[in-house]
Amino acid sequence: MAQTNKPRKRRSKRTPLAEPERGASLHVTAQQTTEISFLGPIPPPEFLEAYESVLRGSADRILAMAEDQSRHRQKLEENVVKGGSRNQILGMILAFVLSLLTIGFGGFLIYHNKSLEGFGLVLADLVALVGVFIYGRHTQREELKTIRNSFPE
Protein backbone atom coordinates (compact mmCIF):
# COMPACT_ATOMS: atom_id res chain seq x y z
CA MET A 1 0.00 0.00 0.00
CA ALA A 2 1.52 3.35 -1.02
CA GLN A 3 1.80 6.14 1.49
CA THR A 4 1.24 9.73 0.55
CA ASN A 5 2.53 12.86 2.18
CA LYS A 6 -0.81 14.62 2.28
CA PRO A 7 -1.46 16.59 5.44
CA ARG A 8 -4.23 15.25 7.60
CA LYS A 9 -6.93 17.49 8.89
CA ARG A 10 -7.31 17.56 12.61
CA ARG A 11 -10.62 18.05 14.23
CA SER A 12 -10.74 19.56 17.65
CA LYS A 13 -13.59 20.21 19.91
CA ARG A 14 -13.59 23.74 21.28
CA THR A 15 -15.42 24.66 24.40
CA PRO A 16 -16.54 28.25 24.63
CA LEU A 17 -15.52 30.36 27.60
CA ALA A 18 -18.18 30.83 30.20
CA GLU A 19 -19.89 34.17 30.03
CA PRO A 20 -18.67 36.50 32.77
CA GLU A 21 -21.23 37.59 35.31
CA ARG A 22 -22.85 40.89 34.76
CA GLY A 23 -20.57 43.70 35.94
CA ALA A 24 -17.46 41.44 36.07
CA SER A 25 -14.60 42.03 33.73
CA LEU A 26 -12.29 39.51 32.09
CA HIS A 27 -8.55 40.26 31.91
CA VAL A 28 -6.17 38.17 29.85
CA THR A 29 -2.43 38.50 30.47
CA ALA A 30 0.23 36.99 28.25
CA GLN A 31 3.91 36.79 29.11
CA GLN A 32 6.78 35.86 26.85
CA THR A 33 10.28 35.18 28.14
CA THR A 34 13.32 35.06 25.90
CA GLU A 35 16.67 33.87 27.14
CA ILE A 36 19.84 34.41 25.12
CA SER A 37 23.23 33.12 26.21
CA PHE A 38 26.70 32.92 24.76
CA LEU A 39 29.98 31.30 25.72
CA GLY A 40 33.13 33.20 26.53
CA PRO A 41 33.90 36.61 27.96
CA ILE A 42 33.13 38.58 24.80
CA PRO A 43 29.50 38.96 23.73
CA PRO A 44 28.50 38.64 20.07
CA PRO A 45 28.93 41.76 17.89
CA GLU A 46 25.22 42.63 17.91
CA PHE A 47 25.29 42.79 21.74
CA LEU A 48 28.42 44.93 21.70
CA GLU A 49 26.70 47.22 19.25
CA ALA A 50 23.66 47.43 21.52
CA TYR A 51 25.81 48.20 24.57
CA GLU A 52 27.64 50.87 22.60
CA SER A 53 24.35 52.49 21.56
CA VAL A 54 23.24 52.68 25.21
CA LEU A 55 26.55 53.86 26.67
CA ARG A 56 29.30 55.23 24.47
CA GLY A 57 32.63 53.44 25.06
CA SER A 58 31.05 50.42 26.76
CA ALA A 59 32.13 48.01 23.99
CA ASP A 60 35.76 49.07 24.50
CA ARG A 61 35.37 48.61 28.24
CA ILE A 62 33.94 45.10 27.76
CA LEU A 63 36.80 44.13 25.43
CA ALA A 64 39.38 45.60 27.83
CA MET A 65 37.81 43.65 30.71
CA ALA A 66 38.02 40.41 28.69
CA GLU A 67 41.65 41.11 27.78
CA ASP A 68 42.55 41.80 31.42
CA GLN A 69 40.86 38.58 32.53
CA SER A 70 42.72 36.63 29.86
CA ARG A 71 46.08 38.11 30.92
CA HIS A 72 45.30 37.33 34.56
CA ARG A 73 44.38 33.71 33.78
CA GLN A 74 47.52 33.24 31.67
CA LYS A 75 49.68 34.66 34.48
CA LEU A 76 48.11 32.25 36.98
CA GLU A 77 48.71 29.31 34.63
CA GLU A 78 52.32 30.41 34.14
CA ASN A 79 52.84 30.56 37.92
CA VAL A 80 51.36 27.08 38.35
CA VAL A 81 53.62 25.63 35.65
CA LYS A 82 56.74 27.35 37.02
CA GLY A 83 55.88 26.30 40.57
CA GLY A 84 55.31 22.72 39.49
CA SER A 85 58.65 22.61 37.65
CA ARG A 86 60.46 24.15 40.64
CA ASN A 87 58.90 21.62 43.01
CA GLN A 88 59.77 18.76 40.69
CA ILE A 89 63.43 19.81 40.46
CA LEU A 90 63.64 20.37 44.21
CA GLY A 91 62.12 16.93 44.80
CA MET A 92 64.66 15.27 42.52
CA ILE A 93 67.58 17.04 44.23
CA LEU A 94 66.36 16.10 47.71
CA ALA A 95 65.72 12.49 46.62
CA PHE A 96 69.25 12.31 45.16
CA VAL A 97 70.83 13.66 48.36
CA LEU A 98 68.75 11.32 50.55
CA SER A 99 69.66 8.38 48.34
CA LEU A 100 73.37 9.22 48.50
CA LEU A 101 73.17 9.49 52.30
CA THR A 102 71.39 6.13 52.52
CA ILE A 103 73.90 4.41 50.26
CA GLY A 104 76.77 6.08 52.15
CA PHE A 105 75.36 4.92 55.48
CA GLY A 106 74.98 1.40 54.04
CA GLY A 107 78.63 1.52 52.96
CA PHE A 108 79.57 2.73 56.46
CA LEU A 109 77.72 -0.26 57.98
CA ILE A 110 79.46 -2.69 55.60
CA TYR A 111 82.85 -1.12 56.47
CA HIS A 112 82.17 -1.67 60.20
CA ASN A 113 81.41 -5.39 59.85
CA LYS A 114 77.62 -4.99 59.65
CA SER A 115 77.56 -6.30 56.09
CA LEU A 116 74.06 -7.80 56.17
CA GLU A 117 72.47 -4.59 57.48
CA GLY A 118 74.56 -2.40 55.18
CA PHE A 119 73.83 -4.50 52.10
CA GLY A 120 70.12 -4.56 52.99
CA LEU A 121 70.05 -0.77 53.31
CA VAL A 122 71.83 -0.24 49.97
CA LEU A 123 69.62 -2.81 48.26
CA ALA A 124 66.40 -1.27 49.68
CA ASP A 125 67.52 2.17 48.49
CA LEU A 126 68.27 0.92 44.97
CA VAL A 127 64.96 -0.95 44.79
CA ALA A 128 63.15 2.23 45.86
CA LEU A 129 64.97 4.27 43.20
CA VAL A 130 64.15 1.75 40.46
CA GLY A 131 60.52 1.63 41.63
CA VAL A 132 60.17 5.41 41.52
CA PHE A 133 61.75 5.48 38.05
CA ILE A 134 59.37 2.81 36.70
CA TYR A 135 56.35 4.49 38.29
CA GLY A 136 57.36 7.85 36.78
CA ARG A 137 57.72 6.33 33.31
CA HIS A 138 54.34 4.62 33.61
CA THR A 139 52.67 7.85 34.71
CA GLN A 140 54.23 9.75 31.78
CA ARG A 141 52.93 7.17 29.31
CA GLU A 142 49.42 7.35 30.78
CA GLU A 143 49.44 11.16 30.59
CA LEU A 144 50.58 11.04 26.95
CA LYS A 145 47.78 8.57 26.14
CA THR A 146 45.25 10.86 27.79
CA ILE A 147 46.53 13.89 25.88
CA ARG A 148 46.56 12.03 22.56
CA ASN A 149 43.04 10.71 23.12
CA SER A 150 41.70 14.15 23.98
CA PHE A 151 42.54 15.55 20.53
CA PRO A 152 40.35 14.47 17.60
CA GLU A 153 42.20 13.00 14.67
Structure in words:
The protein has 153 residues and is mainly α. It has a domain at 45-150. The protein is 65% helix and 0% strand. The protein contains three helices and no strands. Helix 2 runs antiparallel to helix 3.
Per-chain topology:
Layout: H1 45-54, H2 58-111, H3 115-150
Helix pairs in contact: 2-3
- Fraction of residues in H or I helices: 55-70%
Major beta sheet summary: none
What letter string, H or E per element, gives the SSE order? HHH
Q: Supply Rg.
A: 37 Å
Mean pLDDT: 84
Which features would summarize this protein structure in a list?
153 residues; mainly alpha; elongated; disordered N terminus
Offer a quick outline of the entry.
By secondary structure, this protein is an all-alpha fold. The protein has three helices and no strands. Helix 2 runs antiparallel to helix 3 (115-150).
